[in-house]
Amino acid sequence: MKIPPVKGTRDFYPPEMAVRNFIIDGWKAASLRNGFEEYDGPIFEYLKMYQVKSGDEIVEQLFSLTDRGGRELAIRPEITPTLARMVNQQINSLARPIKWFSVPRLCRAERPQKGRLREFFQWNVDIIGVDDVPADAEVIFCAVDYFRQVGLTSEDIVVKISSREMLAAVLRVIGVADDQLERLYVVLDKRNKVPADAFEAMLEEVLSDESQRSKVIDLMAVKSIGQISELLKLSDAAQKAVDKLERLFDLLETMQIADYCAFDMTIVRGLAYYTGIVFEIYDKAGELRAIGGGGRYDNLLNQFGGPSIPATGFGIGDCVLGLVLAEKGLLEGRLAGCVTDYFVVCADERFFSRTIEVTARLRRAGFAAGFSYKKAKLGKQLKQTSAQRAKECIIIGQEFSDKNQLVVKDMTTGEQRVVDYEEFFAGL
Amino acid sequence: MKIPPVKGTRDFYPPEMAVRNFIIDGWKAASLRNGFEEYDGPIFEYLKMYQVKSGDEIVEQLFSLTDRGGRELAIRPEITPTLARMVNQQINSLARPIKWFSVPRLCRAERPQKGRLREFFQWNVDIIGVDDVPADAEVIFCAVDYFRQVGLTSEDIVVKISSREMLAAVLRVIGVADDQLERLYVVLDKRNKVPADAFEAMLEEVLSDESQRSKVIDLMAVKSIGQISELLKLSDAAQKAVDKLERLFDLLETMQIADYCAFDMTIVRGLAYYTGIVFEIYDKAGELRAIGGGGRYDNLLNQFGGPSIPATGFGIGDCVLGLVLAEKGLLEGRLAGCVTDYFVVCADERFFSRTIEVTARLRRAGFAAGFSYKKAKLGKQLKQTSAQRAKECIIIGQEFSDKNQLVVKDMTTGEQRVVDYEEFFAGL
Description:
2 copies of one chain form a homodimer.
Chain A: H1 14-33, E1 37-38, E2 44-46, H2 56-60, E3 63-66, E4 72-75, H3 80-89, E5 98-102, E6 105-107, E7 119-128, H4 133-150, E8 157-163, H5 164-174, H6 181-189, H7 196-206, H8 210-220, H9 225-231, H10 236-254, E9 261-263, E10 277-283, E11 292-296, H11 300-303, E12 311-317, H12 318-327, E13 342-346, H13 352-364, E14 369-371, H14 378-387, E15 392-396, H15 398-403, E16 405-410, E17 416-420, H16 421-426
Helix pairs in contact in A: 1-4, 4-10, 5-10, 6-7
């Protein structure tokens, strides 16, 4: 019986696994350097966990299941609800600020396409317990720190930043009612993702007032923070939110990552739970969907039954990022292959057991050692040694049988030496 | 709204995550040292993938789901079927022997208890394309190599070894029909897991002939390979299988891991697909269920629509192993904590932005650097520096403002030096 893989999933053969490990190892290193500790949760949670605040798009894309006890579960489509649950559970014992990261495997039943799969890995970085702009700056810095370390420059990547707090305040100035905001965010989030006429049609469904719609369209066309106050007379709340955004950009300058960052009025985010600064990360070539995104979500812990605690963070997936890294040639020569310290060559079938003995002893001593299962000719085994890029080759032949000596060949210089068996191991 | 975690799953807070990383990093290192390459598959596959050859117990414990396209899927309860599918898909391009490892997250709807959870990680190591005993010896060596490296000695751990090929041949000598074998394996696997009378009742259900039953009971009480031929006159097939087992033990001796290994007639394995040598790994204290197990499965690739290719491997879970490591005190002092190279202390609120500047610059230079969000007193921040076990502390104070100088304190010696800002970074 031949069973295919499920559409939208990936098989990680060793070459693809090496790419995944390269990406994830880089994420982990950047997280630790920036002072974040690793956590993880279960692969599934109660279904209702994702029906609270994730937004309609995510709810539609859930892989849900009912277990034998009748519990309604779902494979996690994101880890933020789990983070909120975990922090709430230990809220009294966790030292703040909580600076955590995770690299969960997530599943969403999306239509598979370039850079979008039904199963992917997502780097999540969050700071919980700091309500001030430096925390937003620090998570953005952490993402950029990764990009820079991996060789993606400000020519390749842009972090587009705005603020939902500012947007809400400005929309209120325009006259949009509070209960329209959440639906409006979903529409505004689509502004750069659908044609202009489709966007305007969606907008009309939420805002019946034409003058409001026209102001919103003008607002979304703003190119700098300064232009907002040129367009409208700001309320105190709007001015405060604008000031915060400006302070954020000052900090990004201080951190010397301003070249990676740009204000972008159209950044709103699809998820329902954002409350303040929001951002999305794109490759500048601009052919692909977002590499990642994040922002401030000050109410989420409270909505999951905990206290009111401010929080900010981001998620970056491995699919689009992997495409960008490959396109820019940044994977070449950087993937960890199979490292072999010693390849043990069996010069004659009679010595097969001794070959295994030496290989096992090398491994016990902590070295990566290989040998050939096939009783191949010496020349063929030496080729195998080169193919495995072994540093040294140990030949088990007549010298071993007669005088307990190993023939050790340096695969770089080609030099060969004869060493006593015990002396060799004593010298390792 | 407060939502609990799902029963039988785990939340990995940073301390639990450190244990998980310690275990998995050790598995990966042992795998690479032994010449295995990493692979992985999707978290779910088509449901029927597990209905083919996994055995009834696994099928009952599946977390199955139907996606929106009506596909019947299941979260993977094991990775071997995925391995078979992946190898079959690229059978003509993969160089043999295929030596692969993986550390999949697996889910089984078992009744949660000590060392048994509904979600766990399992180290899988397999050799595909070698039909000879050295491959079985090599996978067993790889497991023991991990145990030894992590500090679990032959006083702590035993690998109990038998052979289904031998068992089948001997059962045929006793007169058991071929079509009874598979059901009989399931019963024999329970021999040490249920009381003697329950075992005999189960046996009676499969074998109606009392004299056969009594011979099977005698056979299962055998304590050494030699005793088998004392009990019964072996067929050629049985003798061949016994010889193979003896060759395996010779090789384990050659590899110097015989002290970890013991013949055990009662090892049969629950999974349906094993065909030759089988083994289970236990802690010698014997309070816990198996740490892991494995064996030869020469027909599985063929059963999944591929060619006939021999294969052997094992799986070791993280739950029981974690309990054993904790019991033996082998986790103490070995878990990677949050490493901080530099903690940047802000001596006065006016310098907060400069504190962030220096922290960001350290991180850009590849160092793990921390700072305090709270505008705390100098003494409190120094305490925080100690708490984070930072190697050095950098104080941003008046010297920085006046003369562009950093005060750098070595947290081990307590020594303090004043360095020019640019000189400090040039010297890193």
